[in-house]
Amino acid sequence: MVVKLPFTPITRITTDFPDASKINSILYELIKENAKKAVIGGGKRTDFQFANNNRTGSKELKILSDWIYDILPQIVFLFAAGHGDQEYDPDLMGFHPTEFEIREFWGVHYDKGEGVIFHNHFPYNISFVYYLRTPEGSSPLILENEEIFLKEGEIIFFFGHQFHCVEAGDVDGRCSIAGNILYNPKVQITPM
Ligand SMILES: [Fe+2]
User: Fold this and answer.
1) Ligand 1 centroid to residue 192 C-alpha, Å
2) Which of 39, 61, 85, 177 is least crowded, fewest Cβ atoms below 10 Å from its Cβ?
């Protein structure tokens, strides 16, 4: 008899950013102003390094990235466990939960009729999208053929290799901040 995995592994995690009401408006204006590059499907994005290492000097971006780094160990623990039935315990992991790095961090803005075609973020390990504005009538995120309606102030984490898209929507001003995360352990094995 073939042994079967006794659960359906987690492939996405959503949670709410507690300070959304304080900084979303400022971040929305910042992204809208700087999203000039067309994506395939019609949306506009900033450059992929826009928000890295507080390059813009925006304290609101730093607040958001600090919070993402705060929750990241628990996010990777959930992905590693594959289910939510275990208490967070970094000692259970065969890796360093604090040695993940946001390597790309950018903004996307969609007006009416704009979206982005199916793509993935391979070879990054984990990707996220944080929602600044999802006006009534905004298209959902489609992640591997599942429609996911996210609201302002919510973040979704998923695996970098998972295909996703946003269909052209009926409203202006759908806006998010996306990021790509790599595992980059400081401890290295030197071949003998
Ligand atoms: Fe994407």
Assistant:
1) 40
2) 85
Residue 6 lies in a domain: no
CA of 147 to the centre of ligand 1 (A): 14
| The token pair that represents 191 in the structure block | 């071949």
Q: Where are the beta strands (DSSP E) in the chain?
A: 12-16, 37-38, 44-45, 100-110, 116-119, 126-133, 141-143, 146-148, 154-159, 164-166, 174-183
- Structural domain includes residue 75: yes
Q: What is the 42 CA–ligand 1 centroid distance (Å)?
A: 13
Q: Which domain holds residue 41?
A: 12-83+92-183
For residue range 99-156, what is the model confidence (pLDDT) as tens digits? 999 999 999 999 999 999 999 999 999 999 999 999 999 999 999 989 999 999 999 9
Distance 6 CA to ligand 1 centre (A): 30
Q: Give the Å distance between the CA of 96 and the centre of ligand 1.
A: 26
**Domain of 132: which CATH number?**
2.60.120.620
pTM: 0.94
